[in-house]
Design a protein that fits this description.
Chain lengths: 789, 57
């Protein structure tokens, strides 16, 4: 650990070090957490991991709404007079120390009975005694040690997703039946004409039959319904030959044992279902800590503070009406459009636009939903209801209504159309041939063709290669929603990028000075003045101005709320702040800037520019060879000249695009037959992300924010985007090559079937063999191609 | 060889027993969080040592 890093959270303490018990802390917040834990014998927290903490945020009054009975009822999982159970989502959970301290909450407050952390989901389930601690106090307690719970409108609406275990049950039944039936069918394969076998084979056969019944009627249910849906939409999907195969297998086997002709194919039948379900399970990869379905409800607060005649009360967000007066505290989100009444508004619209520098607003200005107040409290008057706000209106669009996925064809289904037709015609031709040659063999041959051609290997290659790629991507922090997305990525021919927050980084910004030169003495004076200010822009500029000279203490200092700062150092009177405040008339451009005025003379301005992501030029140069690239930005054209300079020539730019414009733009391209990928980040891209064929959301912190999309890419890996696209293409090629393999197996099987020699033992060997080789083949190849990633 | 009825009967019963046990485990949510328990398991010692320390003082 560096000597100067915070004992609690590990950040560099820089200039202000707070010492306490021979330990360094970067801020009072961290020190307080240490004091709390130290006072309760919980310092073990720091032994498990070094500097595991989060910096606690100021939260005066933030959880007041948890005293509101209506809201409480919606949030609590269980509630009676004595005890209650609550589950909180805590984004700050990140290490084993977190688990330890959160599960020892009862040491901090005896009212907590038990607390149980679910680490992958970043959730904590707390049982507490109502008489000793309230819900609000619980929230404040865990916030005070740096684990602020995230409570959003979504929680209140009770959209708790229930984990669907049906597939798991189906698989386990198939596995159970497969294993047992294999054992029971072995004797007849190898011990022909034994006396004892003759005596007991009927018992074995009927046992196998009994075990295969639940497999056929329960485990394989999904295949019938999918085949039926496909046929209804006139699509011959892969489940059609599978369902046909399963049905034929079961009927023929049953008839064989009833008429005492043979043992039947029960082992092949259950094995087939088992392998297919295994593929289905493997294809699913869920990231517990991510959500691909978020809309604004996940971000909006559950309650707001309403002021009526000077009295504050908490009301649920849905109850906001036009004309209400709301109090928005520091770090709170503005839930509806409104007009700023009082207060020093500095609003961070990064949720909406991706732009991280806060926008300063004055009373009387219109403020939009989705912005986050960053300093002090403000009061606003509501001018529209929540669903009619500028931002939330977007969700009324049809794109966000659930669509039936039946119409979407994946790579296997495209293949299976020809496959099914071929199999059906082969079985008909074979039936006709045998009818004239040896009529009693017709049924045997036709059913054998349908059984052996059941495309098990074919159906397995896509789930396993896509599922494996999904895991490899996830391991490399490119989180893809489902297997179909990878196939879709391979079809893309146009890529649209949002600008702010997507190709620019929201974390760092470049500061450029424009105006008449400042001498060292003036610079140091500005820096000294900035030191006293807590505004985020001031702090950014403070660390930007480099100077060896000592910092002076200003003789006078005044912060004019929402405008800037004035101060006097030596013989210099300095004004820093908005253009109106310092008397700058030139700066008409819509830029974020701190303007400088020294001794009543406007000198220039420090302009905050977005810095572009690392490797941006390379990414565009590579992608440009293969795809049509478009930049679609909600911003003004201020950066156009610069972008044209650094990016390849033929990239198309569109500026001043509203969220609906972006959505419609994607729609129009699709109508022209383009296959579009949208890369965006903010809520303003949500429409376009949903409309596009593949929507990728770039996220600085995958745990915190991303709008609904098909894939989430960690912002640090932006430069790897072309490689991910290439790999998706390669995966699809691997699947296609494996199709050749599995067809080869089918040809071998068909030989046995057509010549009327298909014994159960042949099917029992061929079917698992083909499945396993295909799975091994695609797994090895996908791992191999992604080795360089 | 009549014993085969018993052995097969027993083997099926045992298999069914394990199968039901598995279904119960899934239902009770044992497979929903497979990570946290592995970490939690290591903590019990920490708590004990913490209390011991207090006792010694």
């Amino acid at each position: 650990m560096a000597a100067n890093s915070c004992y609690h959270c590990g950040t560099d303490c820089k200039t202000t070090v707070i010492e306490f018990e021979q330990k360094n802390f970067c801020c009072n917040g961290c020190k307080t957490v240490f004091e709390i834990l130290n006072g309760n014998d919980l310092t073990c927290y720091y032994d498990l991991e070094s500097s595991p903490g989060n910096i606690p945020k100021e939260l005066r009054g933030k959880f007041n709404y948890l005293d509101n009975e209506d809201i409480k009822d919606k949030l609590l999982e269980f509630n009676d007079d004595e005890i209650s159970v609550i589950t909180f989502y805590i984004p700050g959970i990140h290490c084993s120390s977190c688990i330890w301290v959160l599960e020892n909450l009862n040491k901090l407050n005896g009212g907590v009975t038990t607390s149980l952390v679910n680490f992958p989901q970043k959730k904590i389930r707390i049982t507490f005694a109502n008489s000793r601690i309230s819900l609000k106090q619980i929230a404040e307690l865990i916030s005070s040690i740096g684990y602020e719970p995230y409570i959003s409108l979504e929680n209140a609406e009770g959209n708790v997703s229930v984990i669907d275990n049906t597939l798991l049950y189906q698989l386990s039944i198939a596995a159970f039946a497969f294993g047992n039936i294999m054992l029971l069918s072995f004797p007849e394969y190898f011990q022909v004409d034994e006396f004892w076998l003759e005596k007991y084979k009927h018992l074995f056969r009927w046992l196998m039959f009994a075990m295969s019944v639940p497999v056929v009627f329960y485990s394989a249910k999904g295949f019938y319904s999918s085949a039926y849906k496909g046929l209804k939409h006139k699509i011959l999907n892969i489940d059609v030959p599978i369902a046909l195969g399963i049905t034929v297998l079961f009927l023929r086997s049953t008839i064989e044992i009833v008429l005492d002709i043979g043992t039947g194919f029960f082992d092949s039948l259950t094995g087939l279902v088992f392998f297919l379900l295994l593929g289905k399970i493997f294809q699913q990869k869920t990231y517990n800590f991510l959500s691909f379905e978020r809309d604004y409800k996940s971000y909006f607060p559950i309650a707001v503070t309403k002021i009526v005649n000077g009295i504050e009360s908490n009301i649920p967000v849905n109850a906001i009406e036009k004309g209400d007066r709301l109090l928005i505290r520091n770090e709170e989100l503005i839930p509806v459009d409104g007009i700023l009444i009082t207060g020093d508004a500095s609003i961070d619209y990064s949720f909406v636009t991706g732009e991280s520098n806060p926008v300063v607003k004055n009373s009387g200005d219109k403020i939009y939903a989705g912005g986050k107040q960053t300093q002090g409290a403000i009061e606003m008057e509501v001018i529209s209801t929540i669903s009619q706000s500028y931002l939330t209106q977007l969700w009324g669009n049809d794109v966000f209504k659930k669509v039936d996925t039946i119409g979407i064809k994946n790579i296997t289904d495209t293949m299976s159309k020809y496959f099914t037709i071929a199999i059906l015609s082969i079985s008909i031709v074979a039936g006709v041939f045998w009818y004239f040659y040896q009529p009693e063999m017709v049924i045997n041959v036709v059913t054998a063709v349908l059984i052996i051609a059941c495309p098990c290997a074919l159906a397995l290659s896509a789930p396993f290669s896509l599922g494996n790629m999904l895991r490899i991507f996830g391991y490399k922090k490119f989180y893809v929603k489902n297997a179909v997305t990878i196939e879709n990525i391979a079809k893309i021919n146009t890529i649209i990028f949002d600008k702010t927050g997507t190709i620019t980084s929201t974390k760092e910004s470049n500061i450029v000075y424009r105006g008449t030169n400042l001498n060292d003495k003036e610079k140091i004076a500005i820096k000294s003045l900035l030191r006293a200010s807590n505004h985020p822009l001031s702090r950014a500029l403070y660390s930007f101005i480099e100077s060896d000279l000592n910092i002076d203490k200003p003789e006078s200092f005044e912060e004019v709320v929402g405008k800037g700062i004035v101060g006097k150092i030596g013989n210099l009177t300095i004004k820093l702040g908005s253009s109106g405040f310092v008397g700058n008339t030139e700066n008409a451009l819509n830029e974020t800037a701190i303007n400088v005025n020294i001794n009543n003379d406007f000198r220039g301005s420090y302009v905050f520019k977005n810095s572009y992501r690392n490797g941006l030029n390379d990414v565009f140069a590579i992608l440009n060879q293969k795809y049509k690239l478009i930049i679609l930005s909600g911003d003004n054209e201020g950066e156009k000249a610069h972008l044209e300079k650094i990016l390849p020539k033929n990239i198309i730019f569109y500026f001043n695009q509203k969220p609906e414009d972006k959505l419609n733009f994607v729609k129009k391209l699709q109508e022209k037959g383009e296959y579009v990928m949208m890369v965006g980040d903010g809520l303003n891209d949500s429409g376009a992300l949903a409309q596009s064929n593949v929507g990728i959301s770039i996220s600085e912190n995958v745990n915190v924010f991303s709008p609904a999309c098909d894939a989430i890419l960690d912002a640090k890996l932006f430069n790897k985007l072309p490689e991910f696209l290439t790999l998706s293409n390669k995966t699809v090629s691997i699947i296609k090559s494996s199709f050749i393999f599995s067809l080869l197996y089918n040809v071998i099987g068909l030989y046995f079937a057509l010549t009327g020699q298909l014994e159960p033992v042949v099917a029992a060997i061929l079917m698992p063999l083909s499945s396993i080789t295909i799975v091994v083949y695609v797994t090895i190849l996908t791992n191999f191609v992604s080795k360089k990633l | 060889m009549e014993v085969i009825y018993i052995t097969i009967g027993v083997s099926v019963v045992v298999a069914v027993f394990f199968f039901i046990a598995f279904l119960k485990a899934v239902k009770s949510g044992q497979y929903e969080d497979t990570y946290t328990p592995s970490v939690r398991m290591l903590f019990d010692d920490e708590l004990v040592s913490e209390e011991n320390k207090k006792n010694q003082e």
